[in-house]
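User: Batch of two.

Assistant: Item 1 of 2:
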Amino acid sequence: MAERRDEKLGVMVCGHGSRDDNAVAEFANLAKGLKTRLGDMPVEYGYLEFATPVIRTGLDALRAAGVTRILAVPGMLFAAGHAKNDIPSVLNTYAAGHAGLRIDYGRELGTDTRMMRAAAARIEEALAQAGDGVARHDTLLMVVGRGASDPDANSNVAKVMRMLWEGFGFGWGETAYSGVTFPLVEPALERAVRLGFRRIIVFPYFLFTGILVDRIYEHTDRVAARHPQIEFVKAGYLNDHPLVVETFLERIDEILNGANLMNCALCKYREQVLGFEGEVGLAQASHHHHVEGIGTAGGDHHHDHDHDHDHGHGHGHDHGYGHDHGHGHDHGHDHGHHPYPHADHPLGPKSLKGHD
């Protein structure tokens, strides 16, 4: 990551914050892991709310270290209201108040292949602990996302689930959410039970622990108690898996290399998304200023923040757009491709034989 002679680079990792001390500690550890990998480059971190340091404090520390160009990345899996609106608002306000300081904002972790491999590792760990007594075709994977009032972010959880389902070759895959949207974990698991699989793996696609991850596991236990004939396996969340750190490094590098493409094609603030048509072009503003630093670090603010703080504020910066020219048709003949790894899936191609 080269820097020009007239600038000094620094990295700012922007998190949401949590009332859970363990979640805050895990975020801090990840930021320290990034600092180790980046050598002499200054790295700071901060939160929107419920924990300290707040983002502004981290930015102050970078300026004090002589940084003139800050590479800011959201410490978030997907781009919903926090990544699209709240963090940019804080960064833009800060930059406007400090002449000569440049802040470039990176994109969320997203559905990167590294993230998929990190997720797969957590599932593999859970499978190893559970044993091989149940075949993968008799196993259902339930991927649980945080849940947001942003359909683009929610749809990405479903994409993660599909990639993991297909990658492992499980018998079935389902998606659930810990809050805000639907289906929630308990009703989703009750539906999944009816499909008749012998084992259900519940995987929270979360970076860090916290009340929502605890709730996912609690709801899993409730359903498991009602259905003792099914084995329920609780996989661990992502945390600071080395491939998560690698993805953060890639996002930082993208800022410098000009390939920083946040997905604006399905952003409800920019485009007419079904059900959210009234939110196009709303003004960008952060509502987190009144709760910065309150909560974990000894504050007395008792607002329950389990819901998504996406109140429809737009984001006024230009991310740039990529173009997907993928071919979605089925040739129906062999061009020498590698064999499909799950051609023998009981609900796959073989099940269609005799129905042509």
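Item 2 of 2:
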Amino acid sequence: MVTEDEPRIDVVAGVITDATGRILLARRTEGRDLAGLWEFPGGKREPGETPEQALIRELDEELGIQVEVGDPIIAVPQRYPKKRLRLDVRRIERWRGKPRGNEGQALAWVPPTKLTAYSMPPADRPVVAALLQPERYLVTPQPGESDVEWLDGLANSLAAGIRRVQLRLPNIALPRRHYLIREAIDRCHAVEAEVLINGDIALAREFDVGVHLRAAQLSDFTERPIAAPFAASCHDQAELESAEKIGCDFVVLGPVNPTPTHPDAKGIGWVRFGHLRETVSLPIYAIGGVGPDDLLAARHRGAQGIASIRNLWHVEIKKF
């Protein structure tokens, strides 16, 4: 079994897009690990190479194209039974030539919305999520006395670009909770934002939205309990593995740092976050003392992005 101390293989890959927006995938050939699975083209980084140099060389050798490497998308650490790697994925801004499978691999141009239909290695799955899913996950704060003020705060957050929202309404009387949920869903759906309700599957089914389980609820399930979006909070490897086993679409992991509400609680830190990221292929949001300024650090550790209450509520949000 590969451990955290095992040497890591550095792999680079590129997201190559054609004029119609389709993305290029390559199929792993027979005789290789994970043969038959589809992946973003690239290969192993050699000693002395920068990631950019390695990706330019690999795409020339593998596909016969000359590329200009763009911005980082995500770097996914992943532990396999016999190896440990880090997949550093970059956008390909421009390229020349006609891609062909120089190593006998099949190629496919895939519309972004169809990427999830292709079977991929575990390290590539979070890349698809990074391309398709929101990088910020808002957890709503406790409403005060004014429903209008709370709903305005949600509307302002949505106007700032939030597209995934967890409605967390503890200790709210049922009639008021139903009213706030209904109004919040209307505002979210008006901008095509995804909605999940914290902890209450029956309520999520009633309103036909997703559910976000608390960590303590994970042991109650052996399979996915709802067809709508399904997520969970996790704090350790066992909870991450349980969330993946029962079919969660994504999770939040933390706390990464101490928070104002729990200043004495020691965060797991980014290094530990990265080690835990290796154990599953789920999209993972970092939570706990993180905000928009931490998006680069989060993506560098393989996170989908960041989840937060106060740092994403009623604030001006800059695009990642």
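The chain is about 25% helix and 25% strand.
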